[in-house]
């Protein structure tokens, strides 16, 4: 007996359906770009749509952690469908470059408005957005003057008062890499052990959850990225908006090397045959218009010298950013992971 799918009528309908999908795709997009991306922000979909409307180039997204995406690029080699590799961490971009997975921008001039510190010297990657990893505190339970640096969070005065996510997270690994670079491995490991000892609970959840825990009164200080405060403050969820109103930002290390910043950025995949279209997409993301849309919607800081910060970002205040090159974050990643493990920070 023939199964349902083998019956002649069904088979014909399947062929027609496949044909319809192929011709429909052919009609609406002359070409497409495939992104391997660690970015996870809803607003990105709107940007992809806008780019498609303007250029006729549609965007296909494959989302995963940057290490997974890199492993995939390595195993797929020349057969990869990926055209662009995007991360939410500068260390990942540097590692992709050193693994030979990227190619130089066909026209480096598209990144002219990006300062030299926010792009690769060989034009293999460019930052698209910037974020600072800051301290969030409850003004009811912490005086602004009590906070100073990441290092000071190791002090016993914070016992049972801190909330930070897992050490498997790229943002924490890059912060740890920066601390290793600034203070040395032994010092950074001791710091991680002390901060872990000061946490109110084992690391869990994402950056937003750490801010929520401070707002709920469970912890007094959290470490999280700046844009998450914007996302909570503009959330459709009233509880998140209330949480955002209950915390304040402290930019640490202002008296020293500056607050640890990180970038989200991209490079064109070495095996991509669509470098021209990929560069068009990067130029679009670096345009003043889109940089300011990002500042207003994902609340990541613009990276070009011409785009302005949003009003909400301005309300958080100006700060001195650590000028440590992002290549250091990539080079020190493995060491940071090992030291985290040895420190007991899960
Ligand atoms: Fe994020």
Describe what you observe in this structure.
The protein folds into two domains: 4-130 and 263-308, Periplasmic binding protein-like II (D-Maltodextrin-Binding Protein, domain 2, 3-Layer(aba) Sandwich), CATH 3.40.190; 132-260 and 319-343, Periplasmic binding protein-like II (D-Maltodextrin-Binding Protein, domain 2), CATH 3.40.190. With 346 residues, the protein is of the alpha/beta class. Strand 1 (31-37), helix 2 (43-55) and strand 2 (57-63) form a beta-alpha-beta unit. Strands 1, 2, 3, 4, 5, 6, 7, 8 and 9 form a nine-stranded mixed beta sheet that branches. The chain has helices at residues 8-28, 43-55, 66-76, 90-98, 170-183, 185-198, 207-215, 227-233, 238-246, 275-285, 288-297, 311-316, 326-331, 333-343; strands at 31-37, 57-63, 84-87, 102-103, 126-137, 162-163, 221-225, 248-250, 261-269. Residues 1-9 and 14-29 have low confidence and may be disordered. Helix 5 (170-183) crosses helix 14 (333-343), helix 7 crosses helix 9 and helix 8 packs across helix 9. The chain contains 14 helices and nine strands. It is 44% helix and 15% strand. The structure holds fe (ii) ion. Residues 88, 225 line the site of fe (ii) ion. Fe (ii) ion is lined by residues 88, 225.
CATH level-two architecture of the largest domain: 3-Layer(aba) Sandwich
Written as H for each helix and E for each strand, in order along the chain, the element string is HEHEHEHEEEHHHEHHEEHHHHH
Structural class: alpha/beta
Give the low-confidence spans. 1-9, 14-29
What does the largest sheet look like? Answer: 9 strands, mixed
Task: Please report the first level of CATH classification, the CATH class of the largest domain.
Answer: Alpha Beta
**Which molecules are bound besides the chains?**
fe (ii) ion
Which term fits the overall shape?
A: globular
Strand content: 5-15%
Query: How many domains, in number, for the residues?
Result: 2
Q: Give the integer mean of the pLDDT values.
A: 92
Distance between the termini: 57 Å
The number of helical runs is 14
Number of strands: 9
**Helix fraction bin:** 40-55%
CATH topology of the largest domain: D-Maltodextrin-Binding Protein, domain 2
Rg value? 22 Å
CATH superfamily of the largest domain: Periplasmic binding protein-like II
């Amino acid at each position: 007996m023939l199964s349902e799918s083998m019956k002649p009528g069904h088979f014909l309908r399947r062929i027609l359906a496949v044909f319809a999908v192929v011709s429909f795709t052919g009609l609406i997009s002359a070409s497409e770009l495939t992104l391997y991306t660690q970015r996870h922000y809803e607003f990105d979909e709107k940007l992809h749509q806008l780019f498609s409307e303007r250029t006729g180039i549609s965007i296909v997204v494959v989302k995963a952690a940057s290490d997974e995406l890199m492993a995939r690029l390595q195993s797929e080699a020349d057969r990869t469908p990926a055209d662009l590799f995007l991360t939410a961490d500068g260390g990942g971009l540097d590692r992709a470059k050193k693994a030979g997975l990227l190619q130089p921008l066909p026209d480096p001039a598209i990144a002219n408005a990006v300062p030299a510190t926010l792009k690769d010297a060989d034009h293999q990657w460019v930052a698209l957005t910037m974020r600072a990893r800051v301290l969030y505190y409850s003004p009811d339970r912490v005086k602004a003057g009590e906070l100073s640096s990441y290092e000071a969070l190791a002090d016993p005065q914070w016992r049972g008062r801190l909330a930070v996510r897992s050490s498997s997270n790229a943002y924490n690994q890059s912060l740890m890499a920066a601390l290793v670079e600034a203070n040395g491995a032994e010092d950074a490991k001791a710091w991680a052990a002390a901060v872990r000892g000061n946490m109110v609970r084992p690391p869990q959840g994402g950056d937003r959850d750490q801010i929520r825990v401070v707002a709920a009164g469970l912890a007094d200080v959290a470490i999280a990225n700046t844009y998450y405060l914007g996302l909570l403050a503009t959330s459709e969820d009233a509880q998140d908006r209330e949480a955002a109103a209950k915390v304040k930002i402290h930019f640490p290390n202002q008296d020293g090397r500056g607050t640890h910043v990180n970038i989200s950025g991209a490079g064109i995949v070495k095996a991509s045959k669509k470098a021209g279209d990929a560069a068009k997409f990067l130029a679009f993301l670096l345009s003043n218009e889109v940089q300011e849309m990002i500042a207003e919607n994902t609340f990541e800081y613009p990276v070009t010298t011409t785009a302005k910060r949003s009003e909400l970002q301005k309300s958080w205040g100006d700060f001195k950013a650590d000028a440590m090159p992002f290549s250091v974050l990539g080079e020190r990643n493995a060491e940071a992971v090992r030291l985290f493990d040895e420190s007991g920070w899960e």
